[in-house]
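Re: beginner question about structure tokens

> Can someone show what the tokenized structure looks like for a real chain? I only ever see the sequence side.

Sure, here's an example I had lying around. Input first:
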Amino acid sequence: MTVIALKRLGRNEGARLVHQLAGNLGALPPDVVAEIVERTDGVPLFVEELTKAVVEAGADRGYVSISAVPRSSLAVPATLHASLLGRLDRLGPAAKNAAQVGAAIGRDFSYEVLSAAVPLAEPELQEALRRLVEAGLVFQRGVPPMAEYLFKHALVQDTAYSTLLRGPRQALHRRIAEALEQRFLESVETRPEILAYHYGEAAMPDKAIAYWHLAGKSSVAKSAVREAIAQLRRGLSLLDGLPETRERSQLELDIHVTLVSALMAGKGYADPETVAALERANRLVTETAAVGTPLHFSVLYGLWVSNFAGGAIAAALEHASNFLSSAQSQPSSGPLLVGHLTLAISLIFSGDYRAGLPHFETAASLYRPDEHRDSAFSYGQDIGSAPLPRCP
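And the corresponding structure tokens:
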């Protein structure tokens, strides 16, 4: 990556850019040019937008030459935001509506998604988009219905989005999310975070949380652990919007288990965030009556391995004992095998070799490759690859 430092335009360069943008409409009065240069502070985007705002204001009054426009009609907007708002308003309600919906979709958007969410007939929508493109606020690639659009700058998108009131904005995000669900299943499968974002902005936390969890699981599967952590935490942050129910606790537990996997991969087994997520998951196991389930044993194993990896051998020994105690009441031999193994390792590292050996031997005698190979999905490794001694 190469960093290129771009200097601001000087006063002469800024004035030359203003004159070039005014084009064939004639020269702007010197005091108007000076005001544009002063307010834009040498930023090319600002120079371009403010100049276009002044030129379009004159054109809207029917003047064919800027030099013929009264000085009072060439007011320079005080801010870039005001300039962009004015330009959107002058394009008409349909173009402004299309820009608002496009801004809600994102910095770039497709004609297909836009047409599914905007309440405009095809001819009116295409005309609205044509006006946005001709005004230079949006770039177009391809032709409808396969066209793709891109806002010229994030500031243009932000300005269009800022004109939406809260209620209409939430309703718009809901329309976009539902349109994606109903007509663009591939997007739902490959980019669930987009659905999560729109349902979150639509004030529908239950749907948003489900999609943030799906996005997090997808990212973990791709080893994109930093993205997964951010997505799962966004889902957790929305839980406050749901009533306190067992279903809510179960959803929080499921998200925390996925979060633990991402934190272990991204920050390590003994990281404080990993430990905190495991401890919260363990409390949720009790709240949801999930004690003795495979999910419970995966949490217990996580608590053991996080303490063991962090050098807290006494705590690891306690967690291993709890694991084995819970596993002894289970009909499946898998948890029992893991319980004996974790306790054996903990005893060995605490210096009690004599007590550890019988647990190693029991674990080895319980292992069946065909039956226990899937343990890798719960415990991060095939238990058969652990240091089990050979049975005589």
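Each token stands for a local structural state, so reading them left to right follows the chain. The chain is about 70% helix and 5% strand.
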